[in-house]
Each structure stands twice: as C-alpha cells, then as structure tokens.
Design a protein that fits this description.
Helix content is 40%, strand content 23%. The chain is built from 18 helices and 24 strands. The strands form 6 sheets. A 7-stranded mixed sheet has the order 6-5-12-13-14-11-15. Strands 8-2-1-9-18-17 form a 6-stranded mixed sheet, with helices on one face. The longest helix has 31 residues. It starts with a strand and ends in a 5-residue tail after the last strand. It binds flavin-adenine dinucleotide. The site of flavin-adenine dinucleotide has 33 residues, from helix 1, strand 2, strand 3, strand 11 and helix 10.
C-alpha cells in the first residue's frame, strides 16, 4: 500500500526503527514519531542484542547495524556460585547502552527524513494519518484504550534495573545471601566504563528487607536510594568498590503482555506494546526491531492497511509466541533460582542453558566442553567422554541408600524403593496446582514412600514442566525422583539428570 502519512507513538527502539525503515521503503510518506520523553534522558542502562537479530538487522538496514555493532560490547558469561565460576564463551551477544542505541536509531531515522517530536505525549485518536503505529511500550495507553484483547500476567519475583560505572570483565550471574534472603544479579558490561546490574529477589525477601516500604515512598521520577545502598553493600564484591547507579530505579514485577490481535482499525501495535518476554532471555529490543522489519514489509507488499497488518501479525506471531514460551520457562527458573544453590556452578550453568529446552545438552557440550565436562564429572563421579554425552549420562549407575541402579534408566518392572506415582500435567510447577502436588508428595513421604515417579502427557512441553515439578519435589520434599518420558525425548531427560531435576528416568513408549 502507498502510505501517505504515518504516525508513530513512542521513540523507543521499535518506534525509531520502524519509522526509518518505512521512510526508506516509502520516501514519499510523511513519517512523524512522537516521544513523550526528551532525547538522552532514557530509562535504563544496557540491553543485549543476539547474533540472530544482528543478521536480521543486517539484511534490513546494514548502515544502522554497523553503528550498533561499533557501539556494542562483547562479553563472555559466568555463573558465580559458592566460590566457583563456570565461564562460557559467548560471541553471539553484544551489550549496548540503551541511550547509545536510541541515539543511533534517532540519527538514522532523521537521516532518512523522519520527523521526531520530543517531549509530547499523544494519543492514537488525535491524528489524521493513514496508519498509527503504537510503539508506546509495555504500559501502552493505546493498547489499553483499544480493542486488542490484551492480557497482562504479573511475575512473582521483583527486580530492579541498576548500573555501575565500570566494565565487568564478563556477564555474570551471581547470588548473594543476606540476613533477609537471597538476591541474584544478572550483570553485564555494555561499554568500557559501564555495566548493567539487574537484581532480582522473591517477595518474602523483598518484604523482610523493607523494600516494599522504600519503593512505596519513592517519588515517580526518583530512584529507591534505600534499596540501592543496601544492594551496593550486598554486592560489594561484584561491584569492586563501585557504587550502584539508579535511573528511576525501583522494584518492579515483570509484566508479560499478550494480545489477541495486534491491530484495531488503522492502529497497529509494535514491540513491548504488543508483547513482552521476560528480561532473562534478553529479547525485548530484538522483538521490537524485528516487528518493525515485518510491519514495513507488510505495508510494502499488501494493498491496504488491514491486509498489511494481518500479514505482519501472521509473520511475527509464531516467532513472538515461541520466544514468550521460552521466556516464561526462563522466568520460572530464575524466580526459583535460590533453591538450586546446592549445585556446583558448572551444573548450575548446564541447568541454566537447558532451563527452557532451547539448548540441547549435546550442543552445549560441543560449544563449552570445559564447563560440561566438569558438570558431568560432578554428576557421575567419573570422567565423561567428549561425544555422545546423552547416552553416557543415561548409562551412569546410581547408588541410593541400599539400592544400586546399574544405569539411570529404570527398566519396566525393575525393583527398588517403593515409589508413589504422581500423574501430573501442570504448566507452572510453582503455581497452585504445583503446590498441591508438593503437598501430596510430602504426605506420601510422611507415610513412608521412598520416592516418586512422575508421569504425564508425552509431548515435550509437558515433559519439560514435569521435570521442573519433579525438581521442586526433589528439593522441597526429598526422596528418589523418577521422571517418565518418551525415549524420543531422551536428551531432555539426560539434561534433567545432570541439572538435578531428577535421579532416574524411565521410558514410557506408550506415551510416545
Ligand atoms: C529490566 C529490563 C531489562 C531488559 N533487558 C533487555 C535486554 O537485555 N535486551 C533486550 O533486548 N531488551 C531488554 N529489555 C526490554 C527492552 O527494554 C524493551 O523490550 C524494548 O525497549 C522495547 O522497545 P519498544 O520500542 O517496544 O518500547 P520502549 O523501549 O519501552 O519505548 C516506548 C517509548 O514510548 C514512549 N511513549 C509511551 N507512551 C507514549 C505516548 N502516549 N506518546 C509518546 N510517547 C510515548 C516512551 O517514553 C518510550 O520511550 C529489558 C527490559 C527490562 C524491563
């Protein structure tokens, strides 16, 4: 379609990028971005952009990508737990200051002829335009006012987004125990003198530390200084004597946004306004910029706004939903992270990489042999091979009390401890249905059961959730934990064993 006039609400990465791409593909179109904030006064510190995104941006707009990569900062990744560091090489991710990213996108948008109006908050209804692109972020007023079928799911945990004025050598995941509970940082460098420190905790710890009160008492434009000073003390070792810097820093719960449809009449949602994915998979900026590419393609290829929006949604929705599902699993894993601190750093790194079912154990073993070898040695007390690790993991013996299992795969009818079978089909192992299973397991344990056998649907999503619930029971209730699954998903079962999600597995061919 030929767009005469397009209005973009929001000058975040999604809004600025879509404006430039639209102007490049349709030079006669008048494109105006309205951003309520002032340039260079953005909220936030560094964001990450993965290699796959960089390839997509390269194809869409090589000039912009070149500047982004030049301003980006590469880093490896470390899990620092119990005095040990597990480090993996990572050349797939760059960190970049959000201010720098926005400055680049602003410059390129203006170079293409986009008009940007700062300091003005606008609404979709007030414009005479062919299309209104609402890239107005997670709190999108356009979404709330329109017919998009929005739903917002609020996370259990709380997080703050802080910075520090030095560059960490690597990205680091590190927990810290305090008198109030455990805080965990996801920290990474994003320029030669800056790092992001994202810190999360659970609600109980947050309340014990009094942060519910300090956040309440913090004015909207200020940072929660009480929390910042406390966290600075807690993470003093990681901060190497530096301070934590706030930028409207306050405790927040992550909000996952989903919409039944992304368009309503001539208005279309883009980026965080349409969908969010938990920060632990570092994909929000990527999703917003990839949306921009697809929307502009749809507008170029289709005869009218409705069909362009439908095409955009048809292209983007599967990728977005796939990432939202990975993000959901990742969020649940991080929210329950403190319960896994008994594992050594290398096994925790394996658990982290396999938490959402996205990175197969064999692939991780091939790219990070040192970490995986150390994890496997700890798991089996024996030296692992360099190949076929899934077979090897399953073939390892296990001694549990008086019982000796020749391998980790329980044969049908094999003797051993008395096990209570728990048939489960939960999507959130830490939700109420998960709590009910834990209660049942505790009761069975009190009544003398030695362990549990988790059975359920044969599909992969169900198996991954079953493994998570099995892990929860293993940690909170104890006993020998067996997880049933189809042999075709043996790699997931092996990853579950190494990650401490279960002690044994069994193949149930009937389910496959
Ligand atoms: C703690 C945390 C960590 C994150 N880490 C990462 C990461 O590592 N990697 C990553 O890729 N993503 C990360 N993200 C997500 C990322 O910040 C967002 O997904 C991304 O910025 C989305 O871009 P956007 O353009 O859709 O929205 P935003 O960047 O939110 O931009 C929306 C803009 O719209 C403006 N606006 C809103 N309403 C109006 C209005 N009515 N009129 C005018 N202007 C308006 C706002 O001022 C804002 O500038 C993180 C998010 C959080 C919360």
């Amino acid at each position: 379609m030929r767009v005469r006039r397009a209005v973009v609400l929001g000058g975040g990465p999604g809004g600025l990028y879509v404006a430039r791409l639209l102007k490049l593909t349709q030079p006669s179109c008048e494109v105006v971005v309205y951003e309520q904030g002032e340039p260079d006064k953005t909220f936030g510190f560094g964001v990450g952009l993965a290699a796959g995104t960089q390839r997509n941006l390269e194809a869409a707009d090589a000039d912009t990508l070149r500047d982004i990569v030049a301003a980006g900062w590469r880093h490896d990744m470390t899990m620092a737990v119990g005095g040990r560091d597990a480090r993996v090489h990572n050349d797939r991710l760059i960190g970049i200051a959000r201010t720098e990213l926005l400055a680049i996108l602003q410059r390129h948008a203006e170079k293409a002829g986009v008009q940007i109006e700062y300091g003005t908050r606008r609404t979709a209804g007030e414009f005479d335009a062919d299309i209104v692109i609402a890239a107005d972020g997670v709190n999108s007023a356009t979404r709330s006012a329109g017919q998009f079928g929005e739903s917002v799911e609020v996370g259990r945990g709380l997080y703050v987004w802080c910075g520090a004025d030095f560059a960490l050598p690597d990205a680091v995941f590190a927990p810290v125990g305090t008198e109030h509970g455990v805080f965990v940082t996801h920290a990474y460098p994003y320029s030669d003198g800056r790092s992001t420190f994202l810190i999360e905790t659970d609600e109980e710890t947050w309340r014990h530390a009094g942060f519910d009160r300090s956040t309440d008492a913090t004015p909207p434009d200020a940072s929660d200084e009480v929390s910042l000073r406390y966290l600075e003390g807690a993470f003093a070792e990681r901060l190497r004597g530096h301070s934590l810097i706030g930028n409207r820093t306050r405790w927040t719960r992550f909000r996952t946004v989903r919409c039944e449809t992304w368009s309503d009449g001539r208005t279309v949602l883009l980026g965080d306004a349409a969908h969010t994915a938990h920060f632990s998979i570092g994909s929000g900026t990527k999703l917003a910029m990839e949306d921009a590419i697809a929307l502009v393609e749809g507008l170029a290829e289709e005869p009218d706004a409705q069909s362009a929006f439908a095409r955009y949604e048809a292209v983007r929705r599967p990728a977005v939903e796939r990432l939202q599902e990975l993000a959901r699993r990742s969020q649940l894993w991080w929210e329950s992270f403190p319960s896994r601190l008994h594992l050594p750093a290398e096994r925790l790194m394996v658990a982290y990489m396999t938490r959402a079912g996205n990175v197969p154990l064999e692939r991780f073993a091939a790219t990070s042999p040192d970490v995986v070898t150390a994890a496997l040695e700890h798991y089996a007390g024996a030296e692992p091979p360099s190949q076929d690790v899934v077979d090897w993991v399953l073939a390892q013996p296990l001694r549990s009390g008086e019982t000796e299992f020749p391998q980790r795969v329980l044969e049908p009818g094999e003797g051993g401890p008395t096990c209570t079978t728990l048939a489960v089909a939960v999507t959130d192992p830490w939700g109420e249905p998960g709590d009910a299973v834990v209660d049942r397991a505790r009761q069975a344990r009190e009544n003398g059961t030695d362990g549990f056998r988790f059975t359920g649907p044969a599909d992969r999503a169900a198996l991954l959730s079953r493994l998570d619930l099995a892990e929860r029971v293993r940690i909170e209730v104890g006993g020998l934990v067996v997880v049933d699954g189809p042999a075709a998903l043996r790699a997931d079962l092996a990853a579950g064993l190494v990650s401490g999600r279960c002690d044994l597995v069994s193949f149930n061919e009937e389910q496959a």
